[in-house]
Design brief:
Glutaredoxin; Immunoglobulin-like; oxidoreductase activity; Thioredoxin_domain; 4-stranded mixed beta sheet; disulfide bond; single chain; AhpC/TSA family protein; alpha+beta
Length: about 375
């Protein structure tokens, strides 16, 4: 017996068996859907790539099957077989759900959005999440719509805007509490993994993020989303307090700049962009800090995540920023942003004369006092 061939054959069978375990089947009954309708499925295939499939609704029934990997959000839509070019706009008839290996049943009348989708564990978790937070999320959405309308009105009613903001705060606090409650009580859920990725990773603080990451099971962390989350967390750890940092970039004059060239000084490294409204709002505070501390062994390095040089330099000139400015004009694909996992701005960190991070995300009207507290 050829042991190598036998082993290879066994591994092929094992791989095939593993793929079979990722098979899904969706059977649906939309009793009043009528004729000339089909169901569209948008999902992640077994390689984690976007995929689509469809099935014609016959006698109110449809059937879809395929393979996927782990569990991830998918969408079922009910659409006409022939697109009516005379009709424009309108709301799509779809529903979001969690698809993984297993069998699913869709039951409804003539609407996918109102249909019941029952399936594997991740979908059960998702239904539970919606039951617990759905009403609060709907309430907050309505408040947000009113705020947007008031804020962008031609004539702003500042009293009304403040009133809506005050109304939103307790609702938002309840949502955050309920969100954390679900996350901490479902550490082995793909839904939890997505909730953390979508709500807790805009700016990862390595000092506090572990409370969300550490309880997650190996099963969910092995998924594509889990692997991306781990990679992002690892990058964030590079700019944790106590870490030494260095990078190279091109400055506004076209010369190479190296952060370590400022060794011996306290340096605030500020990530921003011309199009970032919150970033621009911080610039007057940073200017105040710069003017007060520039003669006390302090410097600022602005790392722009712009993609066009004109927009970048015009903003520097308009906001009157006299400190060091660098950018490789790659946006969030900037070498520095990719290296340190910067995916949201504004962000900054303060390094000491040895090049070690001593504080992060210092901003606000009293930023000069916050920075001065570290300078010896």
């Amino acid at each position: 017996m050829n042991i190598k061939k036998t082993l290879a054959f066994f591994l092929i069978l094992l791989a095939g068996s593993s793929m079979a375990q990722d098979k899904f089947e969706i059977s649906g009954k939309l009793a009043e859907a009528g004729k000339d309708k089909m169901v569209m499925l948008s999902y992640k295939n077994s390689e984690g790539k976007d995929a689509r499939d469809s099935a014609v609704v016959k006698n109110g029934k449809f059937l879809l099957s395929g393979t996927t990997a782990f569990a991830s959000k998918a969408y079922l839509s009910l659409v006409p077989l022939k697109k009516d070019t005379a009709k424009r706009g309108g709301q799509s008839d779809y529903q979001e759900f969690y698809l993984e290996k297993g069998k699913y049943k869709v039951t409804g009348k003539n609407s996918m959005a109102k249909a019941s989708i029952i399936g594997a564990q991740a979908q059960k978790d998702y239904l539970q999440y919606n039951e617990q937070l759905g009403a609060m999320l709907a309430q907050f959405k309505e408040i947000t719509q009113r705020f947007t309308k008031a804020y962008y009105a031609k004539v702003k009613d500042t009293v009304e805007i403040k009133k809506i903001q005050a109304e939103a705060r307790p609702v938002h606090a309840k949502i955050e509490a309920a969100l954390d409650s679900f996350i901490f009580s479902h550490p082995d859920s793909y839904v939890t993994l997505d909730l953390i990725s979508e709500n807790k990773t805009a700016v990862i603080d390595p000092g506090t993020f572990g409370r969300y990451y550490d309880p997650l099971s190996k099963r969910v962390l092995a998924s594509y989303t889990g692997q991306r989350l781990t990679a992002k967390y690892d990058k964030a750890k590079q700019i944790a307090i106590g870490k030494a940092v260095d990078f190279r970039q091109t400055d506004d004059k076209g010369a190479e700049f190296k952060l370590s060239s400022l060794r011996g000084k306290y340096v605030l490294v500020d990530f921003w962009a011309s199009w970032c409204v919150p970033c621009r709002a911080e610039n007057p505070h940073l200017l105040k800090a710069y003017n007060q501390l520039k003669d006390k062994n302090f410097e600022i390095v602005g790392v722009s995540l712009d993609e066009t040089k004109a927009a970048w330099l015009n903003a520097v000139k308009h906001d009157g920023m006299p400190w060091i400015q660098v950018s490789d004009l790659k946006g969030f694909k900037s070498d520095v942003a990719v290296k340190y996992g910067i995916s949201a701005i504004p962000q900054n960190f303060l390094i000491n004369p040895e090049g070690v991070i001593v504080a992060k995300n210092l901003r606000g009207e009293d930023v000069n006092e916050k920075i001065a507290a570290f300078i010896k």
